[in-house]
């Protein structure tokens, strides 16, 4: 009789997300009772349906946890100046504690020009380059929620980080670069791979932990992953039949990896929950300031 193929442990984000949402709800109730109801503002300027779906899911989660969530929809004709002025006004509004600028933005509007107007104290998705700079310098800052969700998920499942070899695939300022900084701060040894990396599999096969944030379904296959490796799949790629798949070929990698995050149900729900947690944290800080 042949032995059954090993099956990777499923690193679900569902329980952690629920615990974070509960923690945010408790903090939101306390803040409301003391006269500072936490408020998140989301600026949108797109007709991209998946972006609106994502924003609706954030608003729903916020309301459920007792936070106010204002969606400011500027329409697809909004100019860079208009969006920047809106973000500046929200930064100046003392009743607003968290600000997210949803991408994509209208063509011709540079994301960096707009997000740099977010007050870093309200930058709950770590989008302002100033926040990334502070993170890199080891100073207090909000990290992009997805990057923090990766580390929170590893912690939640008891995956040790100090001294471990971690390979991050993807170098965006939203996920790859901030997650590398967060992992360095936790004493991991970090390599960052990207589209110009000569031999991706040679890097990933050496790693204890592989984090994939690329946006290409099935990029990471069984040949990229050595036995026992912990794999975090950040990718969220919609399929033609309305499903969501990651960047990792879950069937192949699930046979060799020691543990693997599911898509959906892994990093995604933790990301949304952390946006709420960051907003109540910002409200608490503002209250005490
Ligand atoms: P992005 O800005 O497009 O960056 C993609 C990165 O992947 C780039 O650094 C690119 O390298 C690299 N890359 C492209 N092809 C590659 C290849 N063949 N081999 C190695 N690296 C390659 O994407 P992103 O915003 O970081 O998002 C990545 C994925 O995460 C997407 O699926 C997105 O939907 C998902 N995501 C999920 C969440 C969540 O909450 N779960 C949040 C944010 C993003 P270069 O720099 O050389 O071009």
List keywords for this structure.
289 residues, Rossmann fold, 2 domains, six-stranded parallel β-sheet, 10 helices, 41% helix, globular, binds NADP nicotinamide-adenine-dinucleotide phosphate
Task: Outline the structure in words.
- The protein is of the alpha/beta class and 289 residues long.
- The chain has 2 domains: 90 residues, Leucine Dehydrogenase, chain A, domain 1 (Rossmann fold), CATH 3.40.50; 121 residues, NAD(P)-binding Rossmann-like Domain (Rossmann fold), CATH 3.40.50.720.
- Helix content is 41%, strand content 15%.
- It has a 6-stranded parallel beta sheet, with helices on both faces. The chain has a 3-stranded parallel beta sheet with strand order 3-2-4, with helices on both faces.
- The radius of gyration is 19 Å and the shape is globular.
- It starts with 8 loop residues before the first strand and ends with a helix.
- The relative contact order is 0.17.
- Bound molecules: NADP nicotinamide-adenine-dinucleotide phosphate.
- The site of NADP nicotinamide-adenine-dinucleotide phosphate has 26 residues, from helix 10.
């Amino acid at each position: 009789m042949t032995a059954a193929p090993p099956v990777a442990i499923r690193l679900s984000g569902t329980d952690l997300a629920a615990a974070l949402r509960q923690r945010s709800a408790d903090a939101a109730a306390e803040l409301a009772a003391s006269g500072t109801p936490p408020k998140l503002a989301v600026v949108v300027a797109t007709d991209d349906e998946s972006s609106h779906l994502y924003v609706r899911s954030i608003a729903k989660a916020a309301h459920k946890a007792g936070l106010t969530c204002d969606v400011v929809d500027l329409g697809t004709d909004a100019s860079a100046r208009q969006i920047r002025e809106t973000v500046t006004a929200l930064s100046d509004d003392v009743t607003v504690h968290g600000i997210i600028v949803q991408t994509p933005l209208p063509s011709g509007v540079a994301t960096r020009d707009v997000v740099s107007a977010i007050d870093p104290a309200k930058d709950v998705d770590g989008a302002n380059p100033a926040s990334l700079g502070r993170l890199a310098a080891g100073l207090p800052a909000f990290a992009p929620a997805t990057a923090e969700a990766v580390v929170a998920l590893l912690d939640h499942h008891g995956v040790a980080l100090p001294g471990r070899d971690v390979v991050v695939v993807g170098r965006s300022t939203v996920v790859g670069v901030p997650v590398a900084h967060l992992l360095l701060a936790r004493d991991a040894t970090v390599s960052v791979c990207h589209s110009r990396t000569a031999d991706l599999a040679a890097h990933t096969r050496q790693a204890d932990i592989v984090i994939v944030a690329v946006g290409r379904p099935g990029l990471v296959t069984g040949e990229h992953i050595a036995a026992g490796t912990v794999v975090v799949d950040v990718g969220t790629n919609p399929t033609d039949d309305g499903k969501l798949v990651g960047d990792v070929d879950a069937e192949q990698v699930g046979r060799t990896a020691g543990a693997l995050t599911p898509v959906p149900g892994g990093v995604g729900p933790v990301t949304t929950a952390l946006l709420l947690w960051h907003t109540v944290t910002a409200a608490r800080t503002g209250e005490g300031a």
